[in-house]
């Protein structure tokens, strides 16, 4: 394991502990701030995610957004590949996807212009630490090569870190929404 990989692993371990404590203290549903942000983008195709483990849940905000335009969730196509996003609606039939996340039973792929990104940790420079598979980095790079794509990290405030070990391939966030505030990155 390289030095950077070891540093990232240690940062993830600490961040998972903070997220677990925040999830236990607040519960999964804290999407009010995210709903307020998304209200300014009604009808713009967006992708959220189906929360797993102790991730903060964007489902209430996704349900509101689905009344105004297409909403999708990520589908892992294979290792080393970008994510694809399949159309999701509240109450739609789902199936088990990789890593325990639910995905729509029938794939109906589209490209979002806004991506709500789950994360393990974030910092005040727009850095994001994910699970280590690089799926969102590859996906955001591909989408941003075609058109402006807004990446909104969604997390508990407790997931903030002073600074994160980042690599050149790590895609920055445009903003982070927590249960307490909205942090914009220039």
Automatic annotation (TrEMBL):
Its cofactor is Mg(2+). Its EC number is 6.3.3.2. Keywords: ATP-binding, Ligase, Magnesium, Metal-binding, Nucleotide-binding. It comes from the Bacteria. It catalyses: (6S)-5-formyl-5,6,7,8-tetrahydrofolate + ATP = (6R)-5,10-methenyltetrahydrofolate + ADP + phosphate. Coiled coil: none annotated. GO terms for molecular function: 5-formyltetrahydrofolate cyclo-ligase activity; ATP binding; metal ion binding. NCBIfam families: MTHFS_bact. PANTHER family: 5-FORMYLTETRAHYDROFOLATE CYCLO-LIGASE, ATPASE INHIBITOR/5-FORMYLTETRAHYDROFOLATE CYCLO-LIGASE. This is 5-formyltetrahydrofolate cyclo-ligase. The lineage of its organism: Bacteria, Pseudomonadati, Pseudomonadota, Alphaproteobacteria, Rhodobacterales.
């Amino acid at each position: 394991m390289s030095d950077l990989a070891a540093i990232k692993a240690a940062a993830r371990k600490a961040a998972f502990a903070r997220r677990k404590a925040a999830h236990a203290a607040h519960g999964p549903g804290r999407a009010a701030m995210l709903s307020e942000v998304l209200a300014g983008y009604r009808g713009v195709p967006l992708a959220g995610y189906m929360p797993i483990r102790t991730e903060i849940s964007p489902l209430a905000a996704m349900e509101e957004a689905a009344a105004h335009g297409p909403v999708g969730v990520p589908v892992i196509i294979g290792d080393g590949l970008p994510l694809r996003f399949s159309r999701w609606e509240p109450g739609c039939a789902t199936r088990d996807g990789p890593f325990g996340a639910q995905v729509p039973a029938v794939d109906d792929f589209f490209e979002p212009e806004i991506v709500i990104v789950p994360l393990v940790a974030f910092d005040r420079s727009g850095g994001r630490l994910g699970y280590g598979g690089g799926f969102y980095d590859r996906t955001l790079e591909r989408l941003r090569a075609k058109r402006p794509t807004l990446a909104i990290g969604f997390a508990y405030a407790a997931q903030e870190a002073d600074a994160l070990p980042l690599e050149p391939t790590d895609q920055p966030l445009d903003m982070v929404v927590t249960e307490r505030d909205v942090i914009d990155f220039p």
